[in-house]
Amino acid sequence: MTDDEIKALVLRELGKIAPEVDADQIDPAIELREQIDLDSMDLLNLMIAIHQTTGVDIPEADYPQMAGLNGCVAYLRSRIKA
Amino acid sequence: MLCAGWWGTVAEFCMPALGADMEAGIILQWLVKPGDAVKRGDIIAVVDTEKATIEVEVFITGMIQSIVVPEGEKVPIGTVLALIRTEGEAVTPPPEVKPKPAVPPRAVAPAPAPPRPPAPPRIEKPPIPKPPPAAPPRLHVSPLAMRIALELGVDLSTVKGTGPDGAITKADVERAAKAAPAAPPTAPPPPAAPPVEAPKVAAPPRPAMTPEERQAAMRRAIAAAMARSKREIPHYYLGTDIEMSRAMAWLAAENLKRPVTERILYSVMLLKAVALAVHDVPEMNGFWAEGAFKPIEAVHVGVAISLRQGGLIAPAIHDIDKKRLDEIMVNLRDLVKRVRAGVLRSSEIADATITVTSLGEQGVENVFGIIYPPQVALVGFGKITERPWAADGMVGVKPVITASLSADHRASDGHRGGLFLAAINRLLQEPEKL
Q1: Is B409 among the residues known to form the active site?
Q2: Minimal CA–CA distance to B361: which of B299, B253, B246, B270?
Q3: Strand, coil or helix: what is B82?
């Protein structure tokens, strides 16, 4: 998967959780929770959705690495099997 | 407007009271037709209210005899929506259904009853799982029956229960209401939420509300319930800081063992701790009705869930005190999903016996909540933050959460409220026992 594909995947799953979000408005370098009204249930559902679409297991301790869009891409890049 | 409930072997299925702020509902859809078999707990109709689309469950087992109120019609709570023939009787093909265009409010006139065979065995509701009978002073009343009693102004102390362990059921309340329709209730029933300026009962049938209408209607419903709460309930407020390092460490270790799909959020521990603390201080769990506090044995915790487009709903997770954390987590995920989709079940809306609100997600540390009537307590949790914490003569940095209690001073005093918060704290210090 290319970085753009990973980014698109995360945004697609995020859109299912927070339909009001405009993907173009998200700054990939800033934490999602600072830009979008997400609670811990939303974030857990995002992690579950990413896990289910990519097969990557994300330990709870790694959640902070995935706080922003860039972080998600970096984390998933090396772990998604081609 | 009375709903007679049992009528020989035909039961009436009525528009339920789905929250203190509801006056009427619109039948959006029937999921059954005459001749269909239904059992207790089945969802048989979809009703639109100001707050959400509600899947309405049936509380008896039998066969749909006829649909009385057609889809698209708005009727007040208590209106007979359908007739259900109970089991244990020769099933005749249902008469051809001609839904009446409108249902005139019935006083005591019998329902159009079908031929009734002589007294077939009453089908009792399957026993609801519940703890062994408690100490005598506790009234055995199902939360639904309590609601209906409130709506109908029935004095529960005069009602004879026929449910399991003599529990007062919805049917008992309705029978009592029917028996003495003229007698004024011992105390004036709680005033209904002030009339909202929504389309009244005679509104023409129409589909579900638009998102904007729903938004406005929800705001009015919240306004009515909260204004009533502040007008009627003398709130008192208590707060305490709870050191969460044991709880959070236990949860982290637990979640390490679990795949992402089965992980537990800390808010589930808070819900369970509140539900168990009710066992220590039962004055927090129940309803204020007819000038007295009515404790409820079952602990159905209303969980305040905010909606993305604004507003909130506090549907109940049933019997939290008896569920494991992972069961509560499954319930909570499902509930949040359905709240956000706007589809809830009638029992979830009507049954909460105490409410928990957790505003920590937005970063605040303290919540001073407003009680949702006729409940008598609301527990608030703020954000877990790292704070300096002194213990055993040492100061360290610990994760700390502030718990608050808003309670009805008519039902309990600050001393008992303090014990309740202390119990929540104690339970959270032993997370492995939750």
Answers
A1: yes
A2: B270
A3: strand
* Given B235, B279, B300, B409, the catalytic residue: B409
What are the extents of the domains in chain A? Answer: 3-77
The predicted-structure confidence for B256-296, as pLDDT tens digits, reads as follows 999 989 999 999 999 999 999 999 999 999 999 999 999 99
User: Are the beta carbons of B265 and A58 separated by less than 8 Å?
Assistant: no
Facing residue for A39 by CB, picked from B252, B309, B361: B361
Report how far residue B356's alpha carbon sits from residue B377's, in angstroms, rounded to the nearest whole number. 9
CATH fold of the domain at B227-433? Chloramphenicol Acetyltransferase (3.30.559)
- Give me the helix-helix angle, B245-256 and B266-280, nearest 10°: 130
Domain extent listing, chain B: 1-113, 134-189, 227-433
CATH of domain B1-113: 2.40.50.100
Compute the average pLDDT of residues B297-325. 90
Interface with chain A: mutation pick from B258, B263, B303, B308, highest number of A CBs within 10 Å = B308
Cα B353 from Cα B376, distance rounded (Å): 8
Return the structure tokens found at B68.
Answer: 């009385």
Q: Which amino acid is located at B234 in the chain?
A: P
Tokens encoding B405: 């209690």
Q: What is the CATH number of domain B134-189?
A: 4.10.320.10
Q: By the 8 A CB rule, do B142 and B16 touch?
A: no
What is the 8-class DSSP label of residue B333? Answer: H
Subunit contact A60:B361, Cβ cutoff 8 A: no
- Flag if A40 and B261 touch (Cβ within 8 Å): no
A60·B252 Cβ contact <8 A: yes
At A75, list the tokens: 């984390």
Secondary structure of chain B: what % helix, strand, coil (to 5)? 30, 25, 45
pLDDT class for B166, splitting at 50, 70, 90? low
Q: Name the percent of chain A in helix, strand, coil, to the closest 5.
A: 65, 0, 35
Asked if pLDDT for residue B427 goes beyond 90, the answer is: yes
Tell the CATH topology of A3-77: 1.10.1200
Neighbour count for residue B29 (Cβ, 10 Å): 14
The residue written with tokens 């265009």 in the block is B101
| Residues of chain A where predicted confidence (pLDDT) is lower than 50 | none
Please tell me the predicted confidence (pLDDT) of residue B165: 58
Per the omega criterion (within 30 degrees of 0), is the bond before B127 cis?
no
